[in-house]
Amino acid sequence: MGEVLCAAKGEEKTLIEWVDAKPDRYLVWMGEQALKSHARIFTPQDHELSYQQIAAQLIYLPFVYDDPSHPALQRLAKVQTEVHYRASDYADQGVQLLTNFRSNLQQPTFLAADCFGKFANYPAIICGAGPSLKEIIPFLKQHRDKFLILGCGAGMQALLSAGIEPHLTVHVDADPYHKFSKSSTPLFYQLRTSHEVVSQMKGPRFLMAGSGEFALERYIEEKLGLESSTDGGWTAVTRGTALAVEFGCKNIYFAGVDFAASSGAMYAEGVTPPQDTFQTRPDWLLAAEWLSRFTEEHPEQTWGLFSKLNPLMPSIPTAKIEECIGHETVSFSADGKQISGKEIWNEIGASFAKCRTLVDQFLAHFQSIFPNLPSRDAACVKIMNEIDQQMAVQKILDPIWCHWEVVLKRQMESDPDSLAIHRILFLKTLADGFYA
User: Fold this and answer.
1) What is the rounded distance in angstroms from the CA atom of residue 342 to the CA atom of residue 413?
2) CA 158 to chain centre
3) Of 69, 97, 164, 279, whose CB neighbour count within 10 A is largest?
């Protein structure tokens, strides 16, 4: 495993020696003086686009910062976290994500959009699994039906463990840290959501639009008639917040949304934490920033925290829960017509079957002409052009391949023919292993 050192000070000789000591070491240099030109030393321009380009070029490598308080390194750390977090869906070549898509499309579902605008009369509580959730549990038990309670991610498990069933739950993680027990709570989910979590939810299911970053997701959602892609932030809590606005809720409050440890605890009672011993998580910091921005962009809503002021979200004020009780009893029911995506997945499978046939033809012919290059052979070029026209390649393979192509370029001589062959083998691995 390589590593990336991000530094703003140090002697040139020492830094270059560190890079040269191993072939998979990289340096991002933010110092004032210029360093000697080196293939594995990057000097970004002082703007976000430059940071994004470097973070994308070095995906799947750990970044180490010699001075986390340095302003430029802080900006780079934020950009790198965002880029890495988005690319993490493809770290396993997209297998987990696609497994979820395939399984979730077999489940009958309502559309989340059928519920939009129907809860304007209810105050909403977005419940995370932070330790502060316990502070309002007694109040929620007494006034459960005066708020629309959204149990987001592990927040659902925390509420159920406390004897409170939320009116609905929101799940978006493709491979969550936590395991969830069976529940009849209505589920709002995305195609990317863990298929194991979706199958555990025995109540009505409501499919929400994703972020629109994965071409296959957009393709399927258009086929199903979902609403346009939504900026739902980074976590179940942020997506639940956007959902509450889509519901039409005017007063939206947060409980158990801490994004950090409180009194040494990471989660509310009833939630088993992962093995890692950390005080916060990068996606939590991104989520806190997103919530601060989102609440400021929606001044028509009243926002509040049912906990002490959170330094990660200073723009969201505290609220007295006893002053926020709704006047109507919450009623939630499944309306609309259920749909299924089985036919769409059959179409995807047929495209992959065609891809497998073409890939096998390419490899058989390439073996017969080796060591000639495929780019100089008319038959190879013709087959590759046919492969490029397949829906599975355009919507699945290439959006995943673009991440792994970067990794391969770091590890090998990246001439076009070598990369083309690796791309073909990448498609074969995905098609044979996942869709066989």
Assistant:
1) 42
2) 22
3) 97
Q: Are 392 and 351 in contact (CB under 8 A)?
A: yes
Identify residue 219 by its one-letter amino acid code.
Y
Q: Estimate the crossing angle of helix 342-369 against helix 215-224, to 10 degrees.
A: 140
Q: Are 307 and 255 spatial neighbours (Cβ–Cβ below 8 Å)?
A: yes
Beta strands in 35-122 (DSSP E): 41-42, 63-65, 110-111
What single letter denotes the amino acid at residue 330?
Answer: V
The encoded tokens of residue 302 equal: 């009243």
What are the backbone angles phi and psi of residue 181, rounded to the nearest 5°? -80, 165
The single residue listed with the structure tokens 């062959």 is 421
Residue 156 CA, distance from chain mean position: 19
Amino acid at 28: V
* Nearest partner of 239 among 150, 317, 145, judged by Cα: 150
Q: Could you tell me the two tokens for 214? A: 């994965």
- Measured CA to CA, the distance from residue 392 to residue 390 in angstroms comes to 5
Kindly write down the DSSP assignment for every residue of 14-42, as one continuous string.
Answer: HHHHHHHTSTTEEEEE--SSPPPP-TTEE
User: What is the Cα–Cα distance from 236 to 215, expressed in whole angstroms?
Assistant: 21
What whole-number distance in Å separates Cα of residue 239 and Cα of residue 188?
10
Among 328, 306, 327, 330, smallest CA distance to 318 is for 306
240 neighbors 293 (Cβ within 8 angstroms): no
Report the length, in residues, of the chain.
436
Among left, alpha and beta (phi > 0; psi -120 to 50; other), residue 302 is beta
What is the rounded distance in angstroms from the CA atom of residue 252 to the CA atom of residue 124?
A: 5
Residue 92, phi-psi category: left (phi > 0), alpha (psi -120 to 50), beta (remainder): alpha
Yes or no: domain 96-323 corresponds to CATH 3.90.1480: yes
